[in-house]
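Section handout, structural biology tutorial.
Before the tutorial, make sure you can parse a SMILES string by hand: atoms, branches in parentheses, ring closures as digits. In the record below the ligand is zinc ion, and the chain has 366 residues. In the tutorial you will relate the predicted structure tokens back to the input. Do not try to memorize them.
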Amino acid sequence: MSRKQELIEMLKKLTEVPGPSGREESVRNIVAEYLKPYVDKLWVDSWGNLIGLKKGRSSDGKIMIAAHMDEIGLFVSHIEDDGFIRVVPIGGIIERTLIYQRVVLRTRDGRLIRGVVGLKPPHVAKPEELQKVPEFKELFIDIGASSREEVEKLGVRVGDIMVFDRELVELSGDRVTGKAFDDRVGVVSLIEASRIIEKPNVDVYLVATVQEEVGLKGARTSAFAISPDVAIAIDVTIASDVPGVAKSEWYTRLGKGPAIKIADGRNATGLIAHPRVVDLLINIAEKHRIPYQLEIISGGTTDASIIALNKEGVPAGTVSIPSRYIHSPVEVVDINDVYNAALLVARFAEEVTVEWLRELKGATLK
Ligand SMILES: [Zn+2]
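Predicted structure of the complex:
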């Protein structure tokens, strides 16, 4: 099997399990299996972050590389007398992408139950209702049950989680589609980077974080524990290279390589990547002939922006994987971008030295 195909297999395993924020355990177990052979130490902290340590020649410096395991999803909030289920969102899951989708519910004892997101039939809706996207409270989940008792007998309880029910399939041209690519493609890159990295100069902490989609929370707690000297987050970014979007708004393009982030968030209020980190990433990409693009987006941010605020501050950057249709069940990525993101991050981790980190700390004095 080619490496490309192996990465697709890994991504398939990682995306087809449910892992919304706060319920990442199924994902974590798979990531742990993949990371184990490539790290010197592997542990889970009290919040559920999975941390792998690859020891460097010197332990006077620490690099943190983060990718989040959680995906957007739903919580069961209410079970109706006639067996329909009401839900509330976990993270940025929106009405428009949910309508008429298949979802999978996981009960607290691990049972998987299929359902669909229903809506009142178009034939009985008012004409103006057909024009607009329904509100969240109008949506309901139909698991096929006809009473509350039936639902409860299946083991369903308020607080159980649901995610899109979607398998990964291959499209043409090394492209794949599925759900939760945000950020399982980042997790695949993290694992692949751990495999590629030869003996690094300083300690490398590979962190599969929890609860990114609900406020970058796992990155915050794990960064506090690790106290990195420099950090990189691997996450998806918007590939808006589709019809109807002006070329000036094509933030990134699919298949043109990982994106080195300059800034994100509205008016750059997310992360302003540390210029020295950006420069090193660009130099490495050029030296190793890794394709890359530069990225500035005006919405959304990643784990890097909270790691950057750890303690007295951490120089941080983001390596992004272009993805179309983010937060939908049909996200699309190019597997070459996933591999090249891993390669870029791995070479970065190898290149960083204690001296470079020391200089980085004093960089503002010059
Ligand atoms: Zn993400």
